Amino acid sequence: MKKLLYLFLVLGLSLSSCKKEDSNGKPENIITLDGKDYELEAVTREISRFTGIAVEDLVFDKENLSYTHVRYSDMVIKISDYLPHFEI
Fold first, then answer.
1. For a designed S-S bond to 77, which of 30, 35, 67, 72 qualifies (C-beta 3.0 to 4.6 A apart)?
2. Which domain of life is it from (predicted)?
3. Which SS3 state, helix, strand or coil, does residue 24 take?
């Protein structure tokens, strides 16, 4: 019976997978803009400060490096338009 228990234990451990690491090694909350890394939270606060839109109403689009308003999806806010004015 012990042999069967050990067999299942070894089998379970051998089939378990490890979490795949991001290939670029950069955390998901870091974005690169004009060659400089920024924390996503800090960028969101700056966009909120410039636009007057509450932080919780901004939705980040990682693919386009932009934000949209949670209720107005047609409203696209490009980070590059505000980047020169950031105080981060």
1. 67
2. Bacteria
3. coil
pLDDT digits (tens, 9 = 90+) for 3-55: 777 777 776 777 766 666 555 566 788 888 888 899 999 999 999 999 999 99
Name the E strands within the chain.
30-33, 36-39, 58-61, 66-69, 76-78
Cα distance from N-terminal residue to C-terminal residue, the chain? 63
Report the candidate in 6, 9, 70, 19 with the shortest Cα–Cα distance to residue 44.
Answer: 70
Q: Specify whether the CB–CB gap between 31 and 37 falls below 8 A.
A: yes
5, containing H or E segment: helix 2-15
Cα torsion 57, 68, 37, 49: sign: negative
Two tokens at 77? 């806010």
